Amino acid sequence: MDNYSYDYGWWGVVAFSVLFFGLFVLSFLAPRRKVEWRSFGAFTAFIVALFSEMFGFPLTIYPKMP
């Protein structure tokens, strides 16, 4: 009953998802000015954090562990 299986460490999926969503948004927004590139950088940082926690490593588990 205590045989748990975690699906973490899928770094290929993380890289593919970040590239896919980054290029998808880049194709629609097409930033030209410096301010637009900053906004795109903030969005990319959010996407990297999102997918790295979903498929890479669980950041929220570490504070909850005894």
Number of helices: 3
**Which geometry do the CA atoms define?**
elongated
**SSE ordering:** HHH
What kind of sheet is the major sheet?
none
N-end to C-end Cα span = 21 Å
Query: What number of domains?
Result: 1
Radius of gyration: 16 Å
Structural class based on helices, strands and sheet pairing: mainly alpha
Strand content: under 5%
Would you kindly provide a written description of the structure presented here, covering whatever features stand out?
About 70% of the residues lie in helices and about 0% in strands. It is mostly helical and about 70 residues long. It has one domain. Helix 1 packs antiparallel against helix 2. The longest helix has 23 residues, at about 35-55. The chain is elongated.
Descriptive labels:
mainly alpha; transmembrane; transmembrane helix; 66 residues; membrane
Summarize this entry quickly.
The chain is mainly α and 66 residues long. 70% of the residues lie in helices and 0% in strands. The chain crosses the membrane at residues 12-30, 42-62.
SSE topology:
Blueprint: H1 11-29, H2 34-56, H3 61-64
Helix pairs in contact: 1-2
